[in-house]
Amino acid sequence: MKYLTFSALLLLGAATLFWACNDDEDPCTETTWYEDADGDGLGNPDVSESACEQPDGYVADNSDTDDAGDTTSSAGSTPTAAFDDFNSDAVSVSFDGDEITITSNGLPNHTSPYWDSSSDLYIDPVVANADQMSPGTLREGSYTVTVPASPKKAASSSATGLGAIGIAITGAPIFNDEEGPNVALSENVASGFDYAGGHMGPTGYHYHLESSDVEENTILSQDDERLVGILQDGFLLYGRKCNATNAYPTDLDASGGHTSATQHSDGDEFYHYHIINEFYTGSYIILFGGDLQGTPNTIF
Fold first, then answer.
1. What pTM does this model have?
2. Beta-ladder partners of 68
3. Cα separation, 207 vs 180, whole angstroms
4. Distance, CA of 145 to CA of 165 (rounded, Å)
5. The three-state (H, E, C) secondary structure of 182-197, written as one string
6. Which strand (E) or helix (H) includes residue 69?
């Protein structure tokens, strides 16, 4: 009797152990994951590992053929020499560890028919159709944005919104290609812009377009490699040409960005935007009409 009891207990214990082991070991189907060193959501087909759960820094996609190259561009620091080009009468720049804060009063250092007629910078319309000019005159504003000193590409791009998406070297804010919620900038509206590619709006004077090739334009990028400004994701925006080649870059992404040295980087390559060398509407070229490739920071 004791033998039977012991045997029954032994069988019960073995069954319990078997069930416990089965409960702890769920079926696992391993997946191949690919390294995403640059954080753009695309994986390197040459660097992978198999695991049941997604490892940190790895993705299921394997279509990134230049993962290492993008890492360099994403990690590149913004050259501080670029800020020497900003209008010091309107723009102040401060550096705090790994962050840069840009503050502007919005008052550009060039002539415009949008200045009050009493201003030394007022001129009669050179390019603007006076009948299409926006009402109002240039006035002081306030724009501040804090960006990383070493901006990185985000895992996914971000659409720009209404309002300021960047600050130009003149101090005026940069806007995108819309005139209102889901209302694209029209040729008719653009005909009222000054030679700087700007006009007045509810929040003040701002740019949408590349400047015009007129003798009055002495400081703004026009079909060249000059710096235009900085966008809210921390990446710099340059003119249509690339300083490294003195030609229109042929390797731009959908946002007009690529990695190269510029006149400010002392030979170091970093990711930045260019005005895309395409007409947006009529004879007008937009400053920036794509998605931001970095993480947008609020301009307030």
1. 0.77
2. none
3. 14
4. 10
5. CEECCHHHHCCCCCCC
6. helix 67-75
Q: How many CA atoms lie within 13 A of 58 on its CB side?
A: 17
User: Rounded to 10 degrees, what is the CA torsion of 134, 188, 211, 289?
Assistant: 100
DSSP string, 234-257: S-EEE-SSBTTTTB--S---TTSE
Amino acid identity at 241? K
Query: Which DSSP letter does residue 20 get?
Result: H
Q: Which residues, in sequence order, are CB contacts of 243 under 8 Å at separation 6+?
A: 225, 260, 261, 262, 263
Residue pLDDT, tens place only, 40-90: 677 777 677 788 888 866 788 887 765 544 433 344 899 999 999 999 999
Q: Are residues 154 and 291 in contact, defined by beta-carbon separation less than 8 angstroms?
A: no
* Structure tokens that stand for 283 in this block: 């004879």
- Candidate from 30-44, 74-88, 138-152, 281-295 with smallest mean pLDDT: 30-44
The residue ranges of every structural domain in the chain are: 2-65, 76-294
Q: Rounded to 5 degrees, what angle do the CA atoms 252, 253, 255 make?
A: 105
Alpha carbon distance 76, 122 (integer Å) = 40
